[in-house]
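[Automated response] Your request has been received and processed.

Submitted sequence:
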Amino acid sequence: MRLRDDFLHILAPALCPGCDQLLMPAEHGYCLACRASLSPAPFPRDLFTELLHHFSEDHLAISALGALYLFEQESPVQNLIHALKYQGCYDLGVELGKELGATIKMFPEFDGVDAIIPVPIHRARRRERGYNQAEAIATGIADAFPMEILNDRLYRSRHTISQTTLSATERQRNVQNAFAAHDKSLAGRTILLCDDVCTTGATLNICADRLLFAGAKRVVAAAVAKDLVSNPNAAQHHLPTQQFFP
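Generated structure:
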């Protein structure tokens, strides 16, 4: 198998989606240099506090939030997310999910998770991309949390415009009534909701709200990257990321 992989690497060398440098045969998803250069996300307790810049505690359906990296413009992490969403890099999502799962598992906020649910995308967007990037991330997370992935319990009930240029208030309005969950099998369960990027938390929060309405006991959330757009200096403590060296 190693000889085959080395031969394929010679015929069609892969490039790191983070920096466009050649990936060595032992490197998976993205290169070790990018892994070492990316800024780790703050601790879950600090990310939760940051969410309160956008939601009152009474309106926050997520009980915990974890992330792997800080999202920074014009950085390798932005390139990784772009490749995952728009360049067909499904395996990259799985690799990022493995690291995300191994990282958040170290924190008690994520104890007792029963199932993993990826944030769904609209069927039109799935046809365009060929897959849901959050499902790739969920597949990787399941390496650390060996439990079922429920891809069909939460669905997007209407198409929404991109959140990228919207304010925090506009983001909440944009995803309002955009998701639904109707399944008795969620009753009493603790759900880990996952996505690629969390900015204000509007999408994750409305999804968590729908899961709680469908009977879930508790919803925690995790994202590959967290954009601290509201207060970039709010958190000083960082997650001790689990690096997967060959």
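Summary generated for your ticket: Residues 1-37 form one domain. Residues 87 and 129 are 8 Å apart (CA to CA).
If you did not submit this request, please reply to this message.
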